[in-house]
């Protein structure tokens, strides 16, 4: 009996797609890879296991937006050439890709899957491939901006083919330099009434919005990642610039709504709360930052304020919950907004913590603003310290074979007590690298200005790099080269096997991956405390070929690069995109499965994100 499968399994059997806004059905059932076929992977060294072929001729120039749903999860776009050897990769991605196209050019699309699990099921291998040719939006130029009207507005647009005019303002968004912004579209709105308004985007990760007013286009509000909130004046014209944070752009939905200001929006109007264990509720819709606190949270457009007088001394936990997003919470001491001192630190699992003194007033602020507003709840709990919390009250143990139990709930650190760990965000690591360089008498690598004169020491602003200077984060390319240990073509940092076990790395083992052959499953048994594991000490596992430890598992490691699509053109020692919203992390961690421990896997987080599974390693330039 002859096996049947996808009719377009081979390059020569490619199926033609026609149209500028169309979708076709396909199947990966019994699909294979041909000899000499490229890897097609969105990550360096990654191979798409089962592939089928398509071709499409661009009827006009613009941007091609490709998306997948169903049994296929990878797509690659090629141009030029009559065979696989001469075609050139121009775009690749997981589930979607976008690429500029030229009228008359033939583009070859490859759809496939990184996994083999549905190979025996025609139903499990079925998928839909959608193509849309996007041309320059009508409101691409300021002079052609779209007119919006009313107290509530919702529009959906696409910035793939947008451009930026030479005479536009120097738009500024967190993490981006003005020269990095290449795509904008414009709107005009005249306020029908005076009052507070919020402007926000559904796709805040890839787009930002800035509100301008006046003939000189002075900025009055902006949304780097969440909502732009400002007090509008009836009859005043406001111009909105929607900005791509990094290539290639894409779809977004813009929302405008009237949002009354919360009663405790300002520090002077903070609400009073009491009790050792209490629940605080608020609504961040319409909240703003006062000028002294601007930039308190990269993720927010505003904050709410409360004051709490500690009824007793002890460790205070502040856990936050929100209807959408991840709110930031802070606690301060001080008498005015300009003289506040933050006392909170990151809690081990969630939220923040601080040590309270009975009778002291603490000012609590929460900031978020996802989706233009957020119902938020803060749970405040005061924990009673254990009897042996302090060194002076330590418990005495006797005998030569001692078993004892204890509980560290509510425990605190005394002044001068040795540090016992924590978590770091990307900015923390940049500052640490500079501090280590200066401690050792080296020239720092990171600066806050393009002239490389102001050493990066504080804040969360764009970083400029002196690449031949002291300690710095590795680029993503440097990290992967180091991880592979001089032996390319292997799944993991070791070269003697393409399987993984708990004897090799600190990760969560699962039988769902054929290359995970560990005899123990779940979290690593040596480092599991019964709830979550913890990081393993350096040297517990064997090093790779370069003598480097823990390049797989243990903790995710921050890299220098902004997250973005890989270039289709071969590069030597690339340093990633010039801008973005997220920084790349590599290596996997103790919390996740074997799949993320592969040397080719990349994830990304906001550079302000911190959690106990995040870490880093620093590098020095050659000769140091």
Report on the architecture of this protein:
The chain has 624 residues and is mainly beta. It folds into four domains: 11-134, Jelly Rolls (Sandwich), CATH 2.60.120.380; 142-258, Jelly Rolls (Sandwich); 267-383, Jelly Rolls, CATH 2.60.120; 422-624, paralog of FGE (formylglycine-generating enzyme), CATH 3.90.1580.10. It is 4% helix and 32% strand. The chain has three helices and 34 strands. The chain has helices at residues 122-125, 426-439, 476-484, and strands at residues 15-17, 21-27, 50-57, 62-70, 74-79, 88-94, 96-101, 106-113, 126-134, 146-148, 152-158, 184-190, 195-201, 207-213, 218-223, 227-232, 237-244, 251-258, 271-273, 277-283, 303-309, 314-322, 328-333, 341-342, 345-346, 352-356, 361-367, 375-383, 446-447, 464-465, 556-562, 583-586, 602-605, 614-615. It has a five-stranded mixed β-sheet with strand order 1-3-8-5-6, with no helix packed on it. A five-stranded mixed β-sheet has the order 10-12-17-14-15, with no helix packed on it. β5 and β6 (88-94) form a beta hairpin. It is globular. Residues 117-123 have low confidence and may be disordered.
């Amino acid at each position: 009996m002859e096996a049947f499968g996808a009719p377009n399994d081979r390059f020569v059997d490619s199926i033609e797609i026609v149209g500028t806004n169309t979708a076709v059905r396909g199947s990966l059932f019994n699909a294979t890879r041909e000899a000499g076929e490229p890897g097609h992977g969105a990550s360096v060294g990654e191979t798409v296991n089962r592939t089928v072929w398509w071709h499409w001729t661009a009827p006009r120039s613009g941007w091609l937006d490709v998306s997948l749903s169903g049994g296929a999860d990878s797509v690659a776009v090629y141009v030029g050439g009559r065979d696989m050897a001469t075609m050139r990769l121009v775009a690749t991605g997981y589930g979607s890709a976008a690429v500029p196209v030229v009228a008359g050019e033939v583009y070859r699309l490859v759809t496939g899957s990184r996994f083999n699990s549905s190979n025996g099921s025609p139903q499990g291998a079925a998928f839909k491939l959608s193509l849309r040719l996007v041309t320059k939006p009508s409101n691409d130029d300021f002079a052609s901006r779209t007119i919006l009207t009313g107290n509530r507005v919702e529009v959906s647009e696409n910035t793939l083919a947008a451009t930026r005019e030479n005479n536009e303002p120097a738009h500024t968004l967190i993490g981006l330099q003005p020269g990095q912004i290449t795509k904008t579209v414009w709107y005009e709105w005249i306020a029908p009434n005076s009052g507070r308004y919020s402007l926000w985007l559904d796709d805040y990760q890839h787009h930002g919005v800035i509100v301008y007013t006046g003939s000189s286009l002075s900025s009055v509000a902006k949304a780097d990642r969440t909502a732009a909130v400002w007090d509008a004046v009836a009859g005043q014209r406001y111009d909105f610039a929607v900005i791509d944070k990094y290539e290639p752009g894409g779809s977004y939905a813009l929302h405008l709504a009237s949002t009354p200001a919360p009663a405790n929006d300002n520090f002077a109007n903070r609400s009073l709360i009491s009790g050792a264990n209490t629940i605080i509720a608020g609504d961040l819709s319409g909240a703003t930052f006062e000028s002294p606190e601007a930039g308190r949270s990269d993720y927010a457009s505003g904050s709410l304020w409360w004051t709490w007088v500690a009824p007793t001394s002890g460790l205070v936990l502040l856990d936050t919950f929100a209807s959408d997003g991840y709110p930031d919470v802070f606690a301060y001491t001080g008498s005015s907004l300009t003289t506040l001192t933050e006392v909170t630190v990151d809690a081990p699992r969630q939220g923040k913590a601080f040590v309270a003194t009975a009778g002291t007033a603490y000012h609590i602020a929460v900031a978020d603003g996802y989706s233009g507003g957020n119902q938020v709840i803060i749970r405040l709990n005061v924990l009673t310290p254990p009897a042996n919390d302090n060194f002076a009250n330590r418990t005495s143990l006797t005998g030569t074979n001692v078993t004892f139990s204890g509980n560290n709930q509510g425990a605190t650190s005394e002044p001068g007590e040795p540090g016992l760990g924590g978590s770091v965000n990307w900015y923390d690591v940049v500052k640490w690298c500079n501090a280590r360089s200066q401690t050792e008498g080296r020239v720092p690598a990171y600066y806050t200005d393009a002239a490389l004169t102001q050493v990066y020491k504080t804040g969360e602003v764009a970083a400029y790099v002196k690449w031949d200077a002291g300690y710095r984060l590795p680029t993503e390319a440097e990290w992967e080269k180091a991880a592979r240990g001089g032996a390319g073509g292997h799944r993991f940092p070791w070269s003697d096997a393409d399987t993984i076990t708990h004897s090799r790395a600190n990760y969560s083992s699962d039988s769902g991956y054929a290359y995970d052959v560990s005899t123990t499953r779940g979290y690593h048994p040596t480092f599991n405390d019964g709830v979550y594991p913890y990081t393993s000490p350096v040297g517990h596992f064997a090093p790779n070929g370069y003598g480097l430890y823990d390049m797989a598992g243990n903790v995710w490691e921050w890299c220098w690069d902004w997250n973005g699509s890989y270039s289709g053109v071969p590069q030597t020692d690339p340093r990633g995109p010039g801008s973005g919203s997220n920084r790349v992390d590599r290596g996997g961690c103790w919390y996740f499965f074997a799949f993320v421990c592969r040397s080719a896997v990349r994830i990304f987080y906001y550079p302000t994100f911190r959690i106990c599974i995040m870490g880093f390693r620093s590098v020095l330039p050659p000769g140091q």
